[in-house]
């Protein structure tokens, strides 16, 4: 029997002391390593995600944007490294996740209102507590459609709205959003953007958003995390602190235009850069 050992794991290395992030850090990532088919996607990757901010993740195709938040959220195992939330493990942290494919994210055998309530039931909340929290979310999102219908009976925008409500129901410390607008029309995208901003302004929940749309990534973010080609590193972290709520008028403001241009320049530099390692053909 032959055993294939990842290049990173051939020799046991001495344990490196964990380095905490600067004050205000919520998610601390140290030495994150992930291989696919023997080739590194992330290798000795360090990152600090600030608390109470929206961080957009943007980069070239194949750089592992969704993989990054999936590893942080515990949906994909890592090969090595450490991820802490305010110094706690994932098991001791309450998170929410909004999937790109809302059609597969919702339980089709449950009514929409029961989908939204599902994480609260897992927490053992009483019926009165569940009803009160669902009513709060309905009011916050100004829901006009019938939540007693099944997900497949509703439009895509309605399903994604319900999916976001479900992710927010337990009051997560961190909310992950994987391209949540990609399957929505423009009108629904504007609505969800507005509602996410309202939730953020009310709760200060730390959010990580993966987007393939640069305008969207800049518009929603306090920080834009720009990634390189694989093996993926941080190309730049761009701070963008225009006041909220941001509106369509924001798109025409000089600060927004400058932030978008700088992000685009960095992105194009990475796209043109020849990959430093390619799998053998």
Automatic annotation (TrEMBL):
Any idea where the ABC transporter domain is?
27-254
Q: What is the lineage of its organism?
A: Bacteria, Pseudomonadati, Pseudomonadota, Betaproteobacteria, Burkholderiales
Q: Which UniProt keywords are listed?
A: ATP-binding, Cell membrane, Ion transport, Iron, Iron transport, Membrane, Nucleotide-binding, Transport
InterPro entries (UniProt xref): AAA+_ATPase, ABC_SmlMolc_Importer, ABC_transporter-like_ATP-bd, ABC_transpr_FbpC, P-loop_NTPase
What molecular function terms (GO) are annotated for this protein?
ATP binding
Q: Which PANTHER family match?
A: BICARBONATE TRANSPORT ATP-BINDING PROTEIN CMPC, SPERMIDINE/PUTRESCINE IMPORT ATP-BINDING PROTEIN POTA
Q: Which PROSITE patterns match?
A: ABC_TRANSPORTER_2
Query: Which superkingdom does the taxonomy of this entry point to?
Result: Bacteria
Q: What is this protein called?
A: Nitrate ABC transporter ATP-binding protein
